[in-house]
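Q: Structure tokens for this one, please.
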Amino acid sequence: MLFTVREVDVLRLLCWCQNVKPEDLNKISTETERENLIALGFAKLHERSGTLTITESGKAFLHVLLEGEVPNLAFSYRPELIERRVRLSRVVLTAYYAGINVFTTGASSLSARSSLFLTSVTRNSGRNSWGSARVGAIAHLGNTYYAVHYICPGIGRMAVNDELKAFHNHTNFGVGTNRAFLFAGPTYNDVIEELKIYGEKKDTKLIRYGDVYRGLTSPIHLLSCDETGARQLQIMCVPNYREKLAGLMLKGAYQPPPDDAPAWDGMFNGSPFVVGVDMNLRRIDAAVKFAKKKDCLPILLAALDGQGDAVLLSRYRDAGDAKVYTVTEKVLTKLFDRKPSIYTPPRTPYLTGKGDVIDAPLIKTAGKTGGSHRK
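A: Here is the predicted structure, written as tokens:
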């Protein structure tokens, strides 16, 4: 058989993420394709967690295929670590669907604008330069570097000073570097519900994410780990996306916002226009507050369908603070300079850096080879 891009990418995702739920890979590969990788001994099912993992043979295969550009991660079967890896795998998959390079092996890889770096890759290298920071990944999207945290019930508390220090040290690429935070979760509302818990400080160092959300001056964006979130990341990969979207949506009617309204992205017939696709709710709140002060509510709020249905309609439209407008496929086509689509790997043969294809012996069905490799 010839290895396809889909099969190699599944192996790479298993190598970088370590534990991935099989159903989370359904948009990338079929169950048969994954069973073939198991039959070859390159992947296995960890039955206690119900996750797929890569085997040592699979790592060795990738090491040769990618000429050593693979992470050297120490595996652990501790349930809490597996659970953390599964959560982060969903962040990685969301970025993968957005067409972002998630197969990075060092912070230096973030020089590319559309890239994501898992901190676990270097936490296991013998010297943990991240300290007690809980950040799961660093993403470089457009003109900004983002510290990515997965927010869910029981996530615990953050040592803010440690987080900021680690974030700065690993994105110290010169004066004027833009930094922000991405708080990711299964859905936008899951993240919002967790951020509602705040004000329960037990010490001066560790605080809840809800307190971080209210007190941190850096921009904080919410991210749902689904197709809407992938589309959001695609937009955020475009430099100056808010300015560009305002121009594309308002066309000749666009007017620049007042100098004293930094949370507005434009004016349309006397109404403030705000781009909310990046789900920076604090910025939208500031835009609404200033519009109320200037007696020009409701604002005009641009968002993706999934964002409006999930959060923005009930939060802003129903309160009379905003009229929510959908960013259409036509607008996105102009923004991306191509038809918008979520990335899925092709079934074409995988080509090495030298242009060679990779083949393997014909795989028999699992039922004829004594069953799948499992642990």
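A few notes: The chain has a mean pLDDT of 89. The chain is about 35% helix and 15% strand.
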